[in-house]
Amino acid sequence: MSGVTLYALTGAALVGTGFFGLIAARHLLRRVLAFNLIGSGLFVYLGAAGARGGEADPVPQALIITGIVVALSASALAVGLIVALARARGRAMLPEEDVGG
């Protein structure tokens, strides 16, 4: 197994774990962390895809750097909104859903 394949599989595992956390978690901060895990997995996978020819391609590297900056700012905005919601409601959890009628 080559290093590129290992990075691609690691990225896929991070995306899968983050997707599970995004669906399973009710606490909003855990959902933000799961969303960041998905983004990190995509960055790792994109970096592996950019290194296929033996020499690194600068376009995926630029996309990764830009994505990291956007993910950081979106995470800061999400945490700020969660803090404001927690102050207003007293908790940072999603409400219980009534499944039965």
From TrEMBL:
Q: Where does it mainly reside? A: membrane
Subcellular localization(s) per the UniProt record: Cell membrane
Membrane topology, as annotated, equals:
Multi-pass membrane protein
Q: Say yes or no: keyword Glycoprotein present.
A: no
Pfam families reported for this sequence: Oxidored_q2
One Gene Ontology cellular component annotation held by this UniProt entry: plasma membrane
Membrane-spanning regions, if any?
6-25, 32-51, 63-86
Its keywords, alphabetically, are: Cell membrane, Membrane, Transmembrane, Transmembrane helix
InterPro entries named among the record's database cross-references: CPA3_antiporter_subunitC, NUOK/Mnh_C1-like
Q: Does the keyword Cell membrane apply?
A: yes
Family, per the entry?
Belongs to the CPA3 antiporters (TC 2.A.63) subunit C family.
Name it.
Na+/H+ antiporter subunit C
Species assigned in the record: Histidinibacterium lentulum
